[in-house]
Amino acid sequence: MTAIISKHGELLKIISANAETIQLNKEAGFLAVSDPPHLNMYYRGWWVDLPIAPSVHHIFNYQLKQWVDPRTLEQVQNAKWDQIKAARDAFESGGFEFESHSYDSDQVSQQRILLAMNSDVSQVWTTASNEFIELSPSQLRGLYQSLQTHIALSHERGRIARQLIYEAETIGDVEAIQF
User: Fold this and answer.
1) What is the mean pLDDT of residues 124-151?
2) Residue 87 near residue 179 (C-beta atoms within 8 A)
3) pLDDT, tens digit (0-9, with 9 covering 90-100), for 50-104
4) DSSP letter string over the chain?
5) How far apart, in Å, are the Cα atoms of 48 and each of 31, 53, 63, 152, 159?
6) Is 120 left (phi over 0), alpha (psi -120 to 50) or beta?
7) In contact, 142 and 98? CB cutoff 8 Å
8) Best CA proximity match to 141, nearest among 168, 124, 116, 123
9) Would you say residue 1 has pLDDT above 90?
């Protein structure tokens, strides 16, 4: 087996043929060398394992012999903002605390809490852990206010993260931002 590589050591293809056929399959500037022990390698006079990619976005630059992220700062910022929005939405709908109990905060639960608060009657409520709690009209108003505080907090954290994302000057700074 023979490996055809670029002048920078990138493995382009592996062929099994006689010397004449190999030369016909090798474009100008490419080299024919012995095949690598496995495919995840590059050639620099000998076969070298490719290092582990830092992220799915990185591509290996065979001339520099290192991984590079080809995305622009703007692309990374936009992707990070999408990631933060998803984290914000998961946090918002991931539940909240009221009077030492956890309650659901998905869209359906938010609507139910609003309707219960407006009913102005005591109700037995099921917590996130499936406990039954009797809540007075005053407690239902408190439950609703706790929900609203939870939602406001999630959006405040999102706004802060968004501002940091778009003020960041390097890809590394953007990637370091967390929800």
Assistant:
1) 98
2) yes
3) 999 999 999 999 999 999 999 999 999 999 999 999 999 999 999 999 999 999 9
4) -EEEE-TT-BEEEEE---HHHHHHHSPTT-EEEEPPSSSSEEESSSEEEPPPPSSTT-EEETTTTEEE----HHHHHHHHHHHHHHHHHHHHTT-EEETTEEE--SHHHHHHHHHHHHHTS-EEEE-TTS-EEEE-HHHHHHHHHHHHHHHHHHHHHHHHHHHHHHH--SHHHHHT---
5) 16, 15, 14, 52, 45
6) left
7) yes
8) 116
9) no
Q: What is the DSSP string of 129-158?
A: TS-EEEE-HHHHHHHHHHHHHHHHHHHHHH
Residue type, 51: P
**pTM, whole model, 2 decimals?**
0.73
Structure tokens at 60: 């290996």
User: ∠ CA(55), CA(57), CA(62), 5° rounding?
Assistant: 90
Burial class (CB in 10 A: 0-12, 13-18, 19+), 111: exposed
pLDDT in the model for residue 157: 98
Q: What is the pLDDT of residue 73?
A: 97
| The amino acid at 146 | S
DSSP β-bridge partners for residue 134 = 124
